[in-house]
Write a structure and sequence with these properties.
By secondary structure, the chain is α/β, with parallel strands linked by helices. Helix content is about 45%, strand content about 10%. It is globular and about 50 Å long.
Length: about 290
């Protein structure tokens, strides 16, 4: 069930507070547009600047709004194993389908430390885990061999791979097995990722272009690369423009142009600059999202 286009869901704010009404409305809109699941409170959900209670509130409201229609993969990552256990247990209690757990950032554990961390989270409850490997942000890189060790645990079921290295997909198929769920964490290389054996993308761009991203994923998974390439040609300028500045700020601005939510982000992030706004608007016109 965990495959296809899975938005890394933004957390809407209104005057500095969580905007739960808009969050729940976004869930319904995404499902109508064809999104195949959600990741609430990941990086794009501004997890670093949410309090514990806000984090838990967002996960619970998304699970309730989804009401079993698609999988919810709750963000539960931390560089503090005890905190990760708390987030895991809460996500399990409120009914999430899986947890997305990033490799511990900043304190730079060894491969053995990552195995111990993920094993502790695996053992703390019955919730399946998707590993999130993003060396550019966490400054540690989980090797395919380490991932293979963790894949032996029954509830370590997949990876969100944001290394940008497409050779990781076949390497991880070898170490983790063909049933291990491999999801791209990078919109711009998602076609090649699936061609190498991936089954979907946890996407930032899908926040603003969910139907195009869902159609793109469906085409790649059906082996229809002619259609997929045509859709990628529409989406690529958007993928690039959103990340000129921090991606959550870019995608919230794009969503604000569609009237979906405000472009409000929390410090230390700031709304995107006017030159970036122009490029995002141009990319949305190119994709047919606005005129």
């Amino acid at each position: 069930m965990i495959r296809g286009s899975i938005p890394a869901l933004v957390t809407p704010f209104k005057d500095g507070a969580l905007d739960i009404e808009t969050l729940r409305r976004l869930v319904d809109w995404h499902i109508e547009q064809g999104s195949n699941g959600f990741v609430p409170v990941g990086t794009t959900g501004e997890s670093p600047t949410l309090s514990h209670s806000e984090h838990e509130s967002v996960v619970q409201h998304v699970v309730e709004a989804v009401a079993g229609r698609v999988p919810v993969i709750a963000g539960a990552g931390s560089n503090n194993t005890a905190e990760g256990i708390r987030l895991m247990r809460h996500a399990a209690e409120v009914g999430a389908d899986a947890a997305l757990v990033v490799t511990p950032y900043y304190n730079k554990p060894t491969q053995a430390g990552m195995i111990a961390h993920f094993t502790a989270l695996h053992d703390c409850c019955e919730l399946p885990i998707i590993i999130y490997n993003i060396p550019s942000r966490s400054v540690v890189d989980m090797t395919p061999a380490t991932m293979g060790e963790l894949a032996r645990l029954p509830r370590i079921i997949g990876v969100k791979d944001a290394t940008g290295d497409l050779s990781r997909v076949p390497k991880q198929r070898i170490t983790c097995g063909p049933d291990f769920i491999q999801l791209s964490g990078e919109d711009a290389t998602a076609l090649g990722f699936n061609a190498h054996g991936g089954v979907g993308c946890i996407s930032v761009s899908a926040n603003v272009a969910p139907r195009l991203c869902a159609d793109f994923q469906r085409a790649t998974l059906a082996g229809d690369y002619t259609t997929a390439l045509a859709l990628l040609d529409l989406l690529m300028p958007l993928h690039e423009a959103i990340f000129i500045e921090p991606g959550v700020a870019g995608v919230k601005y794009a969503m604000s142009l569609l009237g979906l939510c405000s472009d409000e982000v929390r410090l230390p992030l700031t709304p995107v600059s006017e030159p970036t706004r122009l490029k995002i608007r141009d990319a949305m016109v190119h994709a047919g999202l606005i005129v």
